[in-house]
Write a structure and sequence with these properties.
homodimer, 238 residues, DNA-binding
Chain lengths: 238, 238
DNA sequence: ACCTGAACACCGTTCAAGT
DNA sequence: ACCTGAACACCGTTCAAGT
């Protein structure tokens, strides 16, 4: 309370304390993830993040090579936060389910950065583990190398798709207008001529809202697993 | 060849002829689609397109409300170019296949703009027709309203996913470096410890290259249809 | 109706310089 | 090691003005 040696320095430090933790690579990535989830990925800029830390834009370049590398690091961070359990011994295609559930669960916690995951998942440790396990399950189900790779990719992409394409997502739009945008889209469908578009008119509501995300994700995973199971069943016959 | 009234005007027109067709909303959208497909969506900017037309950036604002509207129009253009056939009378889930084939086929011709389609498909006529038909088929297969909507969305999104997520896609990266980037990704997987990542090492090649896109798309559509068929089969039993 | 000029508030990034 | 200042080449967009 008393020993202020230099008011200027103290003020600076106080301001920084208000603005959050000290600048560091980790802190920058964390902040970027936060901004992406709350305001959309488009809101993430070097200058904006710098401002949040009360620092010059060029200061970030010490901790991060450039914006592309920051985006990649954001994707990596999300993937590496997935808790991938050990693959249970021998077993069926059902072993894919927990993998997808955990991946989707984590992505849903970072909708703003989910699209980044798509390009990074095979380049970072946790994603590689995930892919290795999926490939193993698919191999044991009898899929050849080509099919195995295709289906493993499809699995990871389905997870990404479920989250970015969820009925209420539209992560690019900041929260405030999101509801309104959704409603206007719904109204446009509901206003279609009912004789030519009976289904769309009837399903207008269900197309844009998702009152139970958990059920939606579970259904999406079911759909993927059902497809893989059916393809596996055809392996002998064709 | 003779009656030049004003050399300045003639030169201007000649220069414009070199730069392409006259400025118009249609021409702007066409040009933007072209740039997106060749250099990635990030290369599409108001100023860049204006430059291609040898015109001031502000000139574009006469033909297009703003950049967002331009992007939306690009998506609409791609969707409305899909040739949607009439839905054949009563029949099974197999009727979804031609719908998906035509959609995927068109998207594959515009990989740079495919991600735009995701947000516009339910707002433009051809996309609405596509959705209506998909919903009809799903309804006739016995899916309730909620499931119908989910699966129709999944169908459209799977098409988008197949194209943007195709092994060699990476549409954001301009052609030149694309091959190199793919190769470096492959090498990274191939260099993994073979005892912990046997599958990934083995499938490294198949994960990043796609020597037969047609087969890849067909497999993706098969996977989706197999999933839907299986879910339909479960409808009575659960 | 259609386009330009000037201006504003944003970007990412480099490079030399400070501490 | 870590940060700043100045500068550059880009963005989207508005507004008044030209033809």
């Amino acid at each position: 309370m008393v020993a202020r040696t230099n008011s200027r320095t103290v003020d600076r430090k106080a301001a920084k304390a208000d603005a959050g933790p000290a600048l560091s690579r980790e802190a920058v990535i964390d902040r970027a993830l936060d901004v992406a989830d709350r305001e959309g990925l488009a809101a993430v800029s070097i200058r904006r993040i710098a401002q949040d830390f009360d620092v010059t834009p060029m200061a970030l370049y010490w901790h991060v090579k450039n914006k592309d590398e920051l985006l990649a690091a954001m994707g990596d961070r999300v993937i590496d936060a997935v808790d991938v359990p050990d693959l249970p011994g021998p077993g069926g295609l059902g072993r894919l389910r927990p993998l997808l559930q955990r991946l989707v669960g984590m992505l849903a916690r970072h909708p703003g950065s989910t699209e980044l995951v798509q390009y990074r998942i095979l380049q970072c440790p946790r994603g590689q583990l995930l892919a290795e396990q999926a490939l193993t399950v698919l191999a044991e189900a009898g899929f050849d190398q080509q099919r195995r790779a295709e289906l493993a990719r499809a699995a990871l992409q389905s997870a990404v798709m479920l989250v970015v394409g969820a009925p209420g997502a539209e992560v690019s739009v900041p929260e405030p207008d999101r509801q309104a945008l959704r409603e206007s889209k719904r109204a446009a469908l509901a206003a279609l001529p009912a004789d030519r578009f009976p289904q769309l008119v009837q399903c207008a509501g269900a197309m844009f809202e998702c009152d139970d995300p958990e059920a939606y994700y579970a259904d999406g995973i079911d759909l993927f697993l059902a497809g893989v199971a059916t393809l596996a069943g055809r392996l002998g016959t064709s």
